[in-house]
Design goal:
Number of helices of chain B: 11
Largest interface: A-B, 29 and 24 residues
Number of strands of chain A: 19
Shape of chain B: globular
Oligomer: heterodimer
Number of strands of chain B: 0
Structural class of chain B: mainly alpha
Structural class of chain A: alpha+beta
Number of helices of chain A: 17
Chain lengths: ~550, ~300
């Protein structure tokens, strides 16, 4: 029974290869795709949903980004904003309102025009409490959206979404947020087609058949053509897309591949144009390749250990800081993690534009030992047994094993390890049934995406961190402020307070790693992993990349 | 015939008891003896590990990282710079302990259960074997996970839990054996001599059914070792920095293209142990099977 798993995996791959058909013998999928203008992408897990108000994982969002379009898009090279459904937009004088002017040529994939009312209806659907939208937070920048989503008010008129005319939409903000525009570029804020949704069930049905290929109506540069469970999702060019003349590809095929090792092998054998995951132990080999297909760069995400400040000995600030200062991040990153991450003692991801990172928890074993002694555990004497939890993954285990030993070596304290499957793990975290737990947070190119969630009782603040001075900076100093450089300085101050309280131990900032075939243009790496499929082109004559065996 | 001669014959009978006979036959089987020696060596090494291991089992040297075999590290090091020989020695302690303890648990439960069911027959047999069928239908993972959740993470409990799910096949084999033996004349003779059912099972049925049981035992030990690796992977078994052969192999398999020695050496250790067990089991079966070696 246990032996069956690898064979089952092989069968799935065989089915994938056979199922897509049309590949002449000896020609790899990549070469065929180059000729036909079809992009093959590895895409993590099987999508749970392609409804922008239901989906919550990044593989789902990557597909949704091709078949839905929000008001604003980004240029994938420099992350500057460019028109999506909105042709242009303007902030009001006091920064509390944004007016979006929609493109009159914007249409759904069945030819229906997109109006301001479509946005209002879609967004109200997204924040309806019965919808159970896990990513409803992206709407909180809109006045009263938070209260409405929690059922505290039920008057839709109170929510700050105003239809001025069919092509003008005004959004009243909850506060004058200079980063507010970021939210309107998320695919979670894309419009949905009301008639289609209502034809296939109630507005708030999470698993309605409207996202099936035969029913689907979207507004992205592509539209859904085929979806075979555990095999692939295929999207084809949307002829009604307002900018379809600038879409180079004819179709894209997303394949659910959960294992980084499998994905890398498929890339190497010319079955994928791009792989979003590279196994750590392969990174070195790829770096040494001439004309390497691997691109690397900073990514707006941070990896940290959450400390449960309710449980002794972690209720003691000196203990928390001692643990944080005894982690040699530099060595961890350069050895175990093969420089696939940026070592960081900061919670806000490194590489944040215009932001200064406060230095608080830098590696300092002498200070760490002094703090531990001050807390009543000189040289680890009397240290109670505590556990570090992580969700099952090779990478998390490696980091945990190394950190466990660093604490043993520098502080002489024992910490045991415990791994759990992801869903069980999230339960453990939400019930605060842990002492130390691994966590990661993928933010955006604004410090607010990291720090705003750490306010007392913040919806995703799982740390139990609650600090009046911190809250005061976020709510009373930053929000009324309009000067961007002052805002950045205030965020630095807020992060300093967070790190000094040490409800978490930052370990590293993420790096983007992506394998891309030389035939692919317009799929650059950027700090948020953002893909604008309009930019992607394939060179029809380029060969598939091949691994060069190097002399040792 | 005088009394002296009679006692001579009695002595001769004493000299070739079942066990002594079996040992004599086993000694002639060279592969089985080699297997036995290797197993004994493994056990001695496992017992002496804390004294003979060249490094501390959790000592890391991150700057060293993964290196191939060298004079300082005979079997190389893993990505944390931990000595592989030390890892294998310590991993062997856990793997062998799991293998033997869990199998022993399975043996005790399975043999007792199967023998009673087979000997009693009728309604008792039906009830006992239906219970086995029901337990078979229960997914064993869920059973082990439940045990772990209720009693917490504990290495000894892990051994017992694995044993507790591995006894089912053992019970079936034993029952089948006992059922066929029960019809034979020597059992009827024992019954007519007035032996209690317990004594008949112990003295006549179990020794005669040992052949297939031993073979199955040698198959259970490796499957138990692999089960432990699987459970550890799920986070229910041993946790780093403790390790076992199964875990070392599963980690090694992830990096086999870059650092093949991380897979080869623990794999070799497990393979050699399993081969030894199989040869020994084979030899034991031949040695104990009176009917098969009348020559």
């Amino acid at each position: 029974m246990r032996l069956c798993a690898p064979f089952a995996g092989a069968l799935v791959i065989a089915a994938l290869v056979a199922g897509l058909g049309g590949c002449s013998p000896g020609e790899s999928r990549v070469v065929q795709g180059n000729r036909e203008g079809v992009l093959y992408l590895g895409n993590g897990t099987e999508p749970q949903s392609l409804d922008p108000h239901v989906l919550s994982s990044s593989p789902d969002a990557r597909i949704a980004g091709a078949i839905h379009e929000p008001l604003i898009m980004y240029n994938p090279y420099d992350l500057s904003t460019e028109p999506g459904v909105a042709q242009r937009w303007e902030f009001s004088e006091d920064g509390t309102e944004i007016t979006f002017y929609l493109n009159p040529d914007a249409r759904f994939s069945n030819g229906d025009p997109i109006t301001a009312e479509d946005f209002r209806w879609s967004w109200m659907r997204a924040i309806t409490p019965e919808m159970g939208n896990l990513l409803v937070e992206v709407f909180y920048g809109i006045r009263n959206a938070q209260a409405y989503s929690k059922g505290e008010i039920d008057d839709p008129e109170a929510v700050g979404i105003r239809v001025i005319d069919p092509h003008t939409l005004r959004v009243e903000l909850a506060f004058p947020d200079p980063f507010a525009l970021l939210n309107f570029a998320y695919v979670y804020m894309a419009p949905v087609h009301r008639a289609t949704i209502e034809a296939h069930g109630a507005m708030t049905d999470r698993y309605s058949p409207w996202t099936k290929p035969e029913n689907f109506v979207g507004n992205g540069p592509f539209t859904l053509e085929d979806w075979k469970m555990q095999r692939f999702v295929k999207v084809k060019r949307n002829p009604y897309y307002w900018d379809t003349n600038n879409v180079a590809l004819n179709a894209m095929v997303f394949r659910p591949i959960e294992s980084a090792t499998t994905e890398e092998k498929m890339f190497r054998s010319g079955q994928l144009h791009s792989a979003a995951m590279v196994p750590n132990n392969k990174v070195k080999g790829y770096r040494e390749q001439p004309d390497t297909p691997m691109v690397e760069g900073p990514y707006m995400g941070s990896y940290y250990y959450l400390l449960n400040t309710d449980r002794p000995p972690l209720d003691n600030l000196s203990v928390r800081r001692a643990l944080a200062m005894a982690v040699d991040r530099q060595t961890l990153a350069s050895t175990v993690l093969q420089d696939t991450v940026l070592p960081s003692a900061n919670y806000v991801a490194l590489g944040m534009p215009d932001y200064e990172h406060p230095k608080v928890l830098e590696f300092n074993p002498t200070e760490a030992r002094r703090l531990l002694a001050e807390a009543g555990f000189p040289n680890g004497e009397g240290w109670p047994p505590i556990a570090l939890n992580y969700n099952t993954s090779e990478n998390h285990r490696s980091v945990a094993v190394a950190v466990q030993q660093m604490w043993k070596q520098h502080l002489n304290v024992d910490v045991s390890l415990a791994n759990q499957e992801w869903k069980v793990y999230l339960d453990t975290i939400d019930n605060r049934d842990y002492q130390i737990a691994r966590m990661g947070w993928i933010g955006d190119i604004a410090p607010s995406a990291f720090l705003d969630r750490m306010v007392s009782d913040g919806p995703t603040n799982r740390s139990g961190f609650s600090n009046a001075v911190f809250d005061d900076i976020i709510f009373n100093k930053i929000r009324p402020e309009k000067d961007k450089s002052k805002i950045m300085a205030l965020y630095t101050e807020a992060e300093r307070i967070l790190l000094e309280e040490t409800p978490l131990i930052p370990i590293y900032s993420y790096k983007v790693k992506r394998l891309t075939q030389p035939s692919v243009k317009g799929l650059p790496s950027n700090q948020t992993g953002y893909i604008n499929y309009k930019y992607v082109e394939l060179d029809p004559d380029a060969p598939a990349w091949t691994w060069q065996t190097l002399d040792p | 015939m005088n009394t002296e001669m009679l006692s001579d014959i009695a002595d001769a009978e004493e000299g070739t008891s079942l066990w002594k006979d079996a040992w004599l036959r086993l000694r002639k089987n060279r592969l089985a003896i080699i297997g036995l020696c290797i197993l004994l060596a493994c056990i001695v090494l496992a017992l002496l590990t804390p004294l003979i291991a060249p490094y501390a089992y959790d000592a890391q040297d991150l700057d060293l990282g993964a290196t191939p075999p060298s004079a300082a590290h005979w079997l190389g090091t893993d990505i944390f710079g931990r000595d592989m020989l030390t890892q294998i020695l310590y991993g062997g302690r856990i793997s062998l302990a799991v293998g033997f303890i869990a199998t022993a648990v399975a043996l005790v439960i399975g043999i007792t259960w199967g023998a009673i069911a087979g000997y009693a027959g009728g309604r008792v047999d039906a009830v006992m074997m239906r219970l086995v069928d029901i337990l078979y239908a229960l997914p064993f993972m869920i059973f082990i996970i439940l045990l772990m959740v209720v009693f917490g993470r504990n290495l000894l409990l892990l051994f017992l839990a694995i044993g507790a799910v591995e006894w089912l096949t053992m019970a079936r084999i034993m029952r089948g054996q006992v059922q066929s033996l029960r019809q034979q004349e020597f059992v009827e003779a024992a019954i007519s001599l007035g032996l209690s059912p317990g004594a008949i099972i112990r003295r006549h049925l179990i020794p005669n059914a040992l052949g297939p049981i031993i073979v199955y035992t040698t198959l259970t030990i490796p499957s138990v070792m692999l089960l432990e690796a699987f459970l550890s992977f799920l986070g229910l078994g041993v946790q780093p920095p403790q390790t076992s052969w199964g875990l070392l192999i599963s980690y090694g398999a992830e990096t086999m293209e870059e650092y093949p020695w991380l897979l080869i050496f623990p794999g070799l250790a497990l393979t050699v142990t399993l081969f030894s067990l199989n040869f020994l089991g084979d030899g034991l079966r031949d040695a104990l099977d009176v009917r098969g070696s009348k020559d």
